Amino acid sequence: MEEQKFEVLLSQKTLEIEALLRRYLPEETGYQKTVLEAMNYSLLAGGKRLRPMLMKETYQMLGGREQVIEPFMAAIEMIHTYSLVHDDLPAMDNDEYRRGRQTTWRVYGDAMGILAGDGLLNYAFETALTAFDLVSDTDILATRRIAAALKILAKKAGAYGMIGGQTADIEAEEQTEALSTEQLLFIHEHKTAALIQAAMLVGAVLAGTGERELALIERCAYNIGIAFQIQDDILDVIGDSEELGKQVGSDAQNHKQTYVTINGLEKSKADVELLSEEALQAITGFSGEHSFLEELVRKLIHRRK
């Protein structure tokens, strides 16, 4: 796909997701108004909207054409946002700014920051459950697909997914001995790749994809997530602070063990290439339209910021 065409489509699709998220925002009323404001403040902070985009592109590539995907698109961005809200808290990363503005806890206080994250996680599933309202009560197949999608979303976001990865990451920071590659890959798989897997698997399940194709999608999403995180580690070593919009070298300053510190820069680059090539081969193996998804994955993995 031509660079200019891709950028136009990317901007258009991002704006469509922004509009979709706004449709699902909770109304800021009642005695709980403050937490609802904090939730909406967090969700509207911007970002790539990568996960809902991957979800919809996978869904459409595999033949999905219904609106049933939309509640899940909003839900996965809410889950991703809640994880960032909690990451920024004083007990976690203690970050005061994200995407150029104050983090949720800095605006609303750390207690309300905790509640805003909790609220977003719960509201994500309230939102996803509205997918049942978009199918007929007599459409048993569609109902089963929604139930299967909910199961994927819950597991990939929970203790056996993202939260498990966060736990291992926190404990690794206190670890005095060197991390093994296996340990680091567990962290990356669960902390980063799990929600990418959730996005693409939910899209595939709702499109009615079979077990063999689901396995390919899950592996493809794993590769994307791991390559994305390795590239993040690489950029912290060789990236440009101005281009990235953040200070580079923080991993080294904080004595944090990364894929690069364990495996070296050249092997890390080679592994990004290998993982991305496998992911792209999987995508191009599907018969549906995938030119935008293919280019999105390529840009994501090989990003400079």
Please explain how this structure is put together.
The structure is a single chain. This protein is an all-alpha fold. The chain has one domain: Orthogonal Bundle (Farnesyl Diphosphate Synthase), CATH 1.10.600.10. It has 15 helices and 2 strands. A hairpin with a 2-residue loop joins β1 and β2. α3 packs antiparallel against α4. The two termini are 21 Å apart. 38% of the residues are buried. About 3% of the residues have low confidence.
Q: Supply the number of helical segments.
A: 15
Radius of gyration: 19 Å
CATH architecture: Orthogonal Bundle
Mean pLDDT metric:
93
End-to-end Cα distance, whole Å, is 21 Å
CATH class placement: Mainly Alpha
Overall geometry? globular
H/E series, N to C?
A: HHHHEEHHHHHHHHHHH
* CATH fold-level topology: Farnesyl Diphosphate Synthase
Poorly predicted runs: 241-249
Kindly report the spatial arrangement of strands forming the biggest sheet: 1-2
Total discrete domains: 1
Count of extended strands: 2
The helicity comes to: over 70%
Strand fraction: under 5%
Look at the helices and sheets and give the structural class.
mainly alpha
What profile does the largest beta sheet have?
Answer: 2 strands, antiparallel
CATH homologous superfamily placement: Farnesyl Diphosphate Synthase
Key features of this structure:
single chain; 305 residues; mainly alpha; Farnesyl Diphosphate Synthase; 15 helices; globular
